[in-house]
Design a protein that fits this description.
Blueprint (H helix, E strand, L loop, with lengths): L9 H12 L2 H13 L3 H29 L3 H9 L4 H34 L7 H12 L3 H17 L2 H28 L5 H8 L9 H14 L6 H6 L9 H29 L4 H5 L2 H16 L4 H32 L4 H21 L1 H29 L1 H9 L11 H23 L6 H4 L8 H17 L1 H8 L5
Helix pairs in contact: 1-8, 1-12, 1-15, 2-10, 2-12, 3-4, 3-10, 3-12, 3-19, 4-5, 5-7, 5-15, 5-16, 5-17, 5-21, 6-14, 7-15, 7-16, 8-12, 8-15, 9-12, 12-14, 15-16, 16-17, 17-19, 17-21
């Protein structure tokens, strides 16, 4: 492919991949979910599913992108057959649908970064912080910060793989340094031992509750990037001799290290500074925890203002690096379809801005889309797993995983794990949809635009899948030679 080069080194590859994987979910969702599900007990289940969900799917994506030299649609078509093109289209579309509102979220981090630098975020009371948040999201400013975020992402991707790698070499080491500094500051606060004890002391009886395991599996599905198709798109730029097996383990553990540091940072700070409000803080949801309570925590911390700047800068860097990968994925699909790189990125940037406007203007639209396509990522993971099973799981292991560049040889245990991945995806989808179904008010559960019911998920999924199935024959022809 005339527009394609490669990552220059393993170091550059891993930083780019970590930039894709590490996002806002690591920093604002992990601490909240860990705290709400037993702390140390949650960590046990979380590590188990890192090995039973994340790493196996990362291995699949690395291998597909490297072998097919194309994004999800081309990879599914070329490796698994033209009948699977619609599955690749689903994977690519789901990640792109997330891109539309993720740019809005990145805009939030940009606004709060500026607010922390200028000391303009009210910190006197939670009510004042909540008023600032509400006035921002109900103004026109989210449109401007959304546009700025898309422009920043497009500017990096427009420079090709070299631009992505250069950005990652700045963003990711900086992010790690900032999170480490914040975690060190948190554990040195008087009373921080309460947070450490809570996060690292498992209560084994908690592991008898299915919810702990399901939440741990969900967190792995949503914060490592496994099964999103993003790794497939980046793996296009791997060198032919590049290792994929060891890199997959490094990516999974590197990503989860950031989550763990974020958990230490948030929980130690909350339990040290506002122990009486700790449950209220972690139960405030992603937006409430980050944009209402975090300013309160840093305001009460001795010399906390510089650390608040570091926190929002780290969150901004995490969002930016992830948005870059989403733009690259969407552009890669168009490039595989025969478009020039410049034209593809320009179209993605314009449509990314336009289709993200509803989420920037109405926060309930963003919440709806986050619910629909967040759960949709589980179906993406299922499609990866079931396609490998239909291809022949042992054949895939021998031919694609254990190639000449593999530093680690993957054994037959992986054959069993891929069946487990497919089963886990089904269980998770059923669990999330069942929780959102109100059997006492079926009509309310089947509305299209609610932020959390099962009907809005199933209706929007059905529409997307119907379109991709109708286009499957065309997609198969169009992408059969992608990457050649």
């Amino acid at each position: 492919m005339s527009d394609q080069t490669h990552f220059t080194s393993r170091y550059g590859t891993m930083l780019a991949m970590l930039g894709m994987a590490v996002g806002t979910g690591n920093i604002w969702r992990f601490p909240r979910v860990a705290a709400s599900n037993g702390g140390g007990s949650f960590l046990v289940a979380w590590v188990v599913f890192l090995l039973l969900w994340s790493v196996p799917l990362i291995l699949v994506e690395f291998s597909l992108g490297k072998r097919a030299r194309s994004g999800p649609v081309g990879a599914f078509t070329r490796i698994f057959g033209k009948k699977h093109a619609w599955m690749g289209a689903w994977v690519a579309f789901t990640a792109t649908a997330i891109m539309f509102y993720y740019s809005v979220v990145m805009g939030w981090t940009l606004r709060y970064l500026w607010g922390s630098i200028t000391s303009s975020i009210p910190t006197a009371t939670p009510e004042a912080a909540r008023g600032f948040w509400q006035s921002y999201i109900h103004s026109g400013w989210p449109v401007l910060t959304h546009a700025t975020s898309m422009a920043l992402g497009v500017a990096v991707v427009m420079k090709g793989v070299q631009g992505i790698e250069r950005a990652a070499k700045v963003l990711i080491p900086s992010l790690f340094v900032m999170v480490i500094i914040l975690a060190i500051r948190a554990v040195t606060l008087p009373g921080a031992d309460r947070g450490l004890a809570f996060l690292f002391t498992p209560h084994w009886s908690d592991l008898s509750h299915p919810r702990v395991w399901l939440q741990a599996l969900t967190q792995n599905a949503w914060d490592t990037g496994a099964g999103w198709g993003l790794i497939t798109a980046y793996a296009v730029y791997l060198r032919r001799s590049e290792d994929t097996t060891l890199n997959a383990f490094l990516l999974g553990f590197g990503n989860n290290t950031v989550s763990l540091l974020a958990g230490i940072m948030v929980l130690c700070t909350a339990l040290a500074i506002l122990p009486q409000a700790a449950q209220q803080i972690v139960g405030a949801g992603n937006e409430g925890l980050t944009f209402i309570w975090v300013p309160q925590l840093f305001h009460r911390m001795p010399a906390g203002e510089p650390f608040m700047v570091l926190f929002f800068l780290a969150l901004f860097f995490a969002a930016w690096s992830s948005l870059i990968s989403m733009i690259e994925l969407a552009a890669r699909v168009l490039i595989d379809a025969g478009w020039t790189r410049g034209r593809a990125i320009l179209v993605v940037g314009v449509f990314g801005f336009l289709l993200g406007l509803p989420s920037a203007i109405w926060i309930n639209v963003l919440r709806n889309q986050d619910w629909v396509w967040g759960v949709g990522l589980l179906l993406s993971g299922f499609f990866f797993a079931v396609s490998v099973l239909r291809f022949g799981v042992d054949r895939f292991r021998r031919e694609l995983l254990n190639d000449e560049g593999a530093d680690l040889r993957i054994g037959r245990w992986w054959n069993v794990v891929m069946w487990l991945v497919a089963a886990q995806a089904v269980v998770l989808m059923v669990w999330w949809l069942a929780q959102a179904f109100n059997r006492h008010d079926i009509g309310a559960s089947l509305t299209l635009l609610s932020t959390s019911n099962s009907g809005t998920v199933l209706i929007q999924w059905a529409l997307a899948i119907a379109v991709f199935l109708l286009l499957n024959r065309w997609l198969g022809r169009r992408f059969e030679s992608a990457g050649e």
